[in-house]
Amino acid sequence: MWSSPFISTPSSVSQIMLRVLLALIPGIALYMWYFGPAILVSITLASITALATEAAMLKLRNRPIKPFLSDNSALLTAWLLALSIPPLAPWWLIVVGTAFAISVSKHLYGGLGNNPFNPAMVGYAVLIISFPVYMTHWLTPNALGHIELSFTEQVRYIFNGVLPAGLTLDAVTMATPLDTLKTQLHLSLSPEQIRNMPIFGYLAGKGSEMIAIGFAVGGIYLLFARIITWHLPVAFLASLFATSGIFYLADPGHYVAPLFHWFSGAAMLAAFFIITDPVTSPTTIKGKFIFAAGVGVLTYLIRVFGGFPDGVAFATLLLNICVPLIDAWTQPKVFGKKGGGK
Description:
Blueprint: H1 13-23, H2 25-35, H3 38-60, H4 65-69, H5 73-84, H6 91-103, H7 119-130, E1 138-139, H8 151-160, H9 169-172, E2 173-174, H10 177-186, H11 191-195, H12 208-224, H13 231-250, H14 258-262, H15 267-274, H16 285-305, H17 312-330
Antiparallel strand pairs: 1-2
Helix pairs in contact: 1-5, 1-12, 2-12, 3-5, 3-6, 5-6, 5-7, 6-7, 7-17, 12-15, 13-15, 13-16, 16-17
């Protein structure tokens, strides 16, 4: 028989990060199914760059390389960044974004545990501001039955910028569902007319809605494994749903239903993998609700009224700035202090 005390051994950082990486696999598998295997090239390039940059920065800081390199935190940053940019992005774009995320937004602040901003989102923000054209070349989903590039053709374009004879980039890429929605609304089409376009499926964009479900499945695994708590994803999704629902009820002829925003863009990736970063999110329960709800509201406002099709990265970074204040404001009073302990 087992006897008390029933004390479990806490998971190490490397074990936690590895389980988060595993939770991304359902979404990545669906990504490959609907858009081809180019995403594996992006993930591989980002991973190699992240590990090399991590080792170089640790060397410059006179820190031991092996224990920090094996904690898998650099790999998680690499995977999240690779999943946030177009899979046909040129190789140097992935390398630049990943190197910046690791060297500047992580190590210049003191390394893991000291960075105030989510490194992957910093890398994404730098890329979309600096190279906006390259960040709009998203592959057309295979479900639309358009021209499909083989893995070899995708790799050749990533490294050499060469497509098969007779093909142009416009023939194999298209705008994201969020970007298409915003563009067509500005052309005075109704949401109902826009949703009847071939790019859209039952919930959001064809292919992308299934990828979002894959990330949600991975996120649910993290919840049951107690790697993350429910407060951040629930507050984010509830806030995004409520904000989009208010606009939809006020004017359904100009705004789409809330489920579209749940299953479009990086919403599910953000809910379970981005805003749940323990380093850059609040430590208190009340603070988690405030932080995630703020990210949800800002994500919607940037998507609908801002200049970028998806607002997850900038919403996350803006709320990262507020985390110290949120934590200070929501810290419970010390027991015994005047006015506390009631």
